[in-house]
Specification:
Elements: H1 2-32, E1 38-39, E2 42-44, E3 50-52, E4 55-56, H2 80-87, H3 96-101, E5 105-107, H4 114-118, H5 122-128, E6 134-136, H6 138-142, H7 146-150, H8 156-178, H9 181-196
Parallel strand pairs: 5-6
Antiparallel strand pairs: 1-4, 2-3
Length: 197
Amino acid sequence: MIKRLFDVIVSFLGLIITAPILVVVAILIKQESPGSVFYRGVRVGKGGKEFRIFKFRTMVPEAEKLGGPSTASDDPRLTKIGKFLRKYQLDELPQLLNVLKGEMSLVGPRPEVPSEIESLEPGIRKIILSIKPGLTSIATIANPHEGEVLRGSQDPHKTYCEKIKPEKIGLNLEYVKRQSFWLDIKIIIKTFLVAVF
């Protein structure tokens, strides 16, 4: 109950405070390329329930048809404003709407696409899906710029599965085991510091 109340209050205030930034970013996205301002990809939430995530679109229209699910920082599908948004993680801000709707929490394992969830061992999948996915996580702090790790890779998704995914799974399992309100506060503060500095 405390976690949900905290999610609602912070996401609501966050949307109000960042509204000017959201409007400016939306205008810049529309100016650079045609298509929607938001990317509404399918993600898997608590209990395996699917939902559509809110993210600022950082790629050219129909990008999913032009490449795989993992994105390197030098991916040609990225727009100029998209590269900037990803660098400072501003593309994630609209997910405050998902938090407000109750589909996500401020802190929790990052939401994955159905194919990534299906690839998990059943026991691990059950643990990770036992709580709501989050806007940020321990794994986000540990590796805030996944795109840089994937830079130059001939197969970004394969590199993701080999270099990033195992650690991310371990950290997600650790969070589920240790989760508490105070741990969430620490993760939110660290995420803010990482994003700013």
